[in-house]
Design goal:
Order of helices and strands: EHEHEHEHEHEEHEHHHHHHH
Structural class: alpha/beta
Distance between the termini: 29 Å
Number of domains: 2
Largest sheet: 8 strands, mixed
Strand order of the largest sheet: 3-2-1-4-5-6-7-8
Number of helices: 13
Shape: globular
CATH class of the largest domain: Alpha Beta
Number of strands: 8
Strand content: 5-15%
Radius of gyration: 21 Å
Helix content: 40-55%
Bound molecules: NADP nicotinamide-adenine-dinucleotide phosphate
CATH superfamily of the largest domain: NAD(P)-binding Rossmann-like Domain
């Protein structure tokens, strides 16, 4: 595979890092020159990673093209490029439908949407794909878990889950800052929270037959401290509000596509 990236930002950089830290990877990677600093540092760090003179040179040198630009840039830039019918385009752009991308990349027939997460840099986490494609599934499967979905509506619904990372870290930060306010050393509190949630994160995989609701029940001993926090947050409408935010993201994603 000759893999090219249009847009060398945070996500493209994470993918290249995950790929090129695999043992024995032989994929040839060509990066578009923006962001200049990120592209240059990836090329300096990894063999077989080069920076092209411009976006068109990426297309001309590669068979598989990943689109890692922001939506507004994609609208400006993609229609000006000469794609070939034999290109395989993999769009990482979260808010564009497959059809919208297909329209912008002219003669290309094979267009796949992929949504990895930043942890792909250490080859962890899922990447959702639409439509199912064995080559793209094999590529992302080496960099974590590839999840192929059969409909764009399922892809859109799964995409909503990716809007929750910042709130997750805010949840951890709330615990950490509370610990600091109660005399726990900053680094010790951080390590404790990180280790606690890394261990809790294992629970769904180690008990695959248990639903999340069941896990919540299991951890909420009747009359215990977990039950109290869960009940109080529920009574305050925290989880209802959270669901409403997910609905809002879903409306935003589906309206955009
Ligand atoms: N980051 C994530 O976790 C994540 C997750 C899922 C999906 N996505 C999607 O991935 C896409 C990229 O996100 P990102 O977070 O990687 O954004 P980003 O860090 O802003 O990267 C976008 C890159 O595009 C470059 N660029 C700007 N104009 C360009 C042009 N004319 N030609 C080529 N490249 C150009 C920018 O370079 P300059 O810095 O020089 O402007 C920047 O490096 C977005 O569409 C987003 O929806 C991101």
């Amino acid at each position: 595979m000759k893999l090219g990236f249009i847009g060398t930002g945070a996500l493209s950089s994470a993918i290249v890092t995950g790929l090129k830290t695999l043992e024995c990877d032989t994929t040839s990677v060509i990066l578009s020159p923006r962001n200049e600093e990120i592209a240059a540092s990836l090329a300096a760090r990894f063999a077989d990673v080069h920076v092209a003179a411009d976006n068109q040179a990426v297309l001309d040198a590669c068979d598989t093209i990943m689109l890692g630009v922001r939506p507004q840039i994609a609208r400006e830039v993609l229609p000006t490029l000469r794609f070939r019918p034999d290109h395989h385009v993999v769009s990482l752009i979260a808010t564009f439908s497959r059809d919208e991308i297909a329209e912008m990349v002219g003669p290309v027939k094979r267009v796949t949407k992929a949504l990895p997460m930043p942890m792909i840099a250490i080859r962890q986490g899922p990447t959702i794909l639409f439509p199912p494609d064995p080559d793209v599934a094999a590529f992302f499967g080496r960099l974590g878990q590839a999840i192929e979905v059969a409909s764009e509506s399922e892809f859109d619904a799964l995409s909503v889950a990716t809007a929750t990372y910042a709130s997750y870290f805010k949840y951890l930060e709330t615990i950490h800052s509370w610990l600091k306010d109660h005399g726990v050393d900053d680094a010790k509190g951080r390590d404790y929270v990180a280790s606690l949630f890394a261990a809790l994160g294992q629970a769904p995989e180690t008990t695959p037959d248990l639903s999340f609701a069941h896990l919540a029940e299991d951890y909420a001993t009747r009359g215990g401290i977990n039950e109290q926090v869960l009940r109080e947050l529920t009574e305050h409408g925290t989880f209802e509000q959270f669901r409403e935010s997910l609905d809002g993201i879903h409306r935003r994603i589906t309206a955009a596509s």
